[in-house]
């Protein structure tokens, strides 16, 4: 009989956690696991079609508001109907509702995934997380730096935490468009070098430092362009700031794109200048396309990029250090190639989607085996209690029989006809 698993995720829009759910499902062991996905917010379902194409059933909800009893009761209904052996949640909203519903319905194994060093979290978020962690079997993280963050800021028992690195499917990067064609479409001269960053245009990603570094680079190297791939709440503000600077004509905003691997392939140097991270998928994508990486020293970036070997790690919010490393790579074609190849090799050895899926299912098996062993121990203890009770009943019956026999004998001895 297959093990029933329900994956609950806050939404299926574009994001790192959503990508990792998709990557896991590509390599999931369908012979052993019956997996269903619950998307709490149908208004964000960019990846639903891809998950459906893999043959997995998706149930969509319409969660709204800070707390919704409707969402909770709907999940409880789903769990009671499906009777999952494992509930695995992703992102805070799903973590909260999924674990509450699992607790109410008696799901035996509950896992939640913390994908980032969530410095945005307020006191009530941390309070809820700490309570729910008490009836969570395991918390998966995607970088060792997240472990230290959880231990220090959430006081979560280290034994409850399991690190499973993110993975990429390398076949996504096998057949890419010619960089010349991509550069032409972006109005970048064929002879120019391209420095790019693929990330949401949000506060977390710190594009400001990226563009400050770009200004430093343009002062030293003329034939270089900068490409920002992504969409987000800060786009208008960032574009306005960049256009007012003299290097603005060298910066291109592409918006949200579906051909990210092709765009990365047209880049010569790839950057991630975030304020905080977990295990950023985009760095793995950079390395999968054999590109050198310059990343800020936050979260798991230094666990992915080996400083001086597959790229450079620089202090966060330091445009001077970031600019210097970009210039070093711009001026050294051999170093770019060497670091790019080293990054590709590292991904092949350590960060594939297949390896991530294997490690995820290894955790499932360990928890199922532990639960089965616990049930067997409980059954043996119950059997022993039953046998002890039966033995005691027999002893009590025997004692009563002997006691009765003694009374009868005494009666006979006292009676004299």
Provide structural commentary.
It is built from 15 helices and 13 strands. It is elongated and about 110 Å long. The strands form 2 sheets. A 7-stranded parallel β-sheet has the order 3-2-1-4-5-6-7, sandwiched between helices. It has a 6-stranded parallel β-sheet with strand order 10-9-8-11-12-13, sandwiched between helices. 40% of the residues are buried. Helix 1 crosses helix 15 and helix 8 packs across helix 13. With 417 residues, it is of the alpha/beta class. It folds into 2 domains: 162 residues, Glycogen Phosphorylase B (Rossmann fold), CATH 3.40.50; 183 residues, Glycogen Phosphorylase B (Rossmann fold), CATH 3.40.50.2000.
CATH homologous superfamily annotation of the largest domain? Glycogen Phosphorylase B
Please give the radius of gyration in angstroms: 29 Å
Kindly state the percentage of residues in helix: 40-55%
Work out the helix count: 15
Are there runs of 5+ residues with pLDDT below 50, and where?
Answer: 411-417
Mean pLDDT value: 91
Q: Name the shape in a single word.
A: elongated
Which SSEs are present, and which pair or pack?
Blueprint: E1 3-9, H1 16-26, E2 33-39, H2 48-53, E3 57-60, H3 69-82, E4 86-90, H4 92-105, E5 109-114, H5 123-133, E6 138-141, H6 144-153, E7 161-163, H7 179-185, E8 193-198, H8 207-220, E9 224-229, H9 235-243, E10 251-255, H10 260-265, E11 269-272, H11 281-288, E12 293-296, H12 301-304, E13 311-314, H13 319-330, H14 333-350, H15 353-414
Parallel strand pairs: 1-2, 1-4, 2-3, 4-5, 5-6, 6-7, 8-9, 8-11, 9-10, 11-12, 12-13
Helix pairs in contact: 1-15, 3-4, 4-5, 8-13, 11-14
């Amino acid at each position: 009989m297959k093990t029933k698993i329900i994956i609950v995720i806050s939404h299926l829009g574009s994001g790192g956690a959503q990508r990792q759910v998709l990557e896991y499902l590509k390599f999931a062991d369908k012979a052993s696991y019956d997996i269903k996905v619950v998307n709490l917010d149908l208004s964000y379902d960019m990846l639903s079609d891809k998950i459906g194409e893999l043959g997995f059933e998706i149930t969509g909800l319409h969660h709204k508001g800070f707390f919704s009893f409707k969402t909770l009761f709907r999940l409880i209904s789903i769990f009671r109907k499906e009777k999952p052996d494992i509930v695995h949640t992703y992102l805070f909203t799903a973590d909260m509702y999924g674990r509450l519903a699992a607790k109410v319905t008696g799901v035996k194994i509950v896992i939640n995934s913390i994908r980032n060093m969530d410095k945005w979290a307020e006191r009530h978020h941390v309070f809820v997380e700490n309570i729910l962690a008490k009836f969570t079997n395991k918390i998966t993280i995607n970088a060792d730096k997240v472990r230290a963050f959880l231990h220090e800021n959430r006081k979560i028992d280290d034994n409850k935490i399991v690190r499973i690195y993110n993975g990429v499917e390398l076949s996504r990067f096998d057949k890419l468009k010619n960089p010349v064609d991509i550069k032409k479409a972006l109005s970048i001269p064929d002879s120019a070098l391209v420095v790019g960053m693929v990330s949401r245009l949000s506060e977390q990603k710190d594009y400001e430092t990226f563009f400050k570094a770009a200004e430093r680079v343009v002062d030293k190297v003329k034939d270089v362009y900068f490409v920002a791939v992504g969409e987000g709440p800060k786009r208008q503000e960032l574009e306005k700031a960049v256009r007012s600077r003299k290097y603005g004509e060298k910066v291109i905003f592409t918006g949200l794109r579906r051909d990210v691997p092709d765009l990365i392939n047209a880049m010569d140097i790839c950057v991630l200048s975030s304020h905080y991270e977990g295990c950023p998928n985009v760095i793995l994508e950079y390395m999968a396309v054999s590109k050198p990486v310059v990343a800020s020293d936050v979260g798991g970036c230094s666990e992915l990029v080996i400083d001086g070997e597959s790229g450079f790690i620089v202090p966060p919010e330091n445009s001077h250090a970031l600019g210097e490393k970009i210039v070093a790579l711009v001026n050294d074609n051999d170093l770019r190639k060497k670091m790019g190849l080293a990054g590709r090799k590292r991904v092949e050895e350590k960060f594939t989607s297949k390896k991530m899926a294997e490690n995820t299912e290894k955790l499932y098996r360990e928890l199922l085996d532990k639960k089965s062993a616990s049930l067997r121990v409980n059954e043996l203890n119950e059997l022993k209690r039953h046998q002890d009770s039966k033995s005691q009943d027999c002893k009590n019956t025997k004692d009563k029989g002997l006691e009765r026999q003694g009374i009868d004998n005494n009666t006979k001895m006292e009676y004299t006809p």
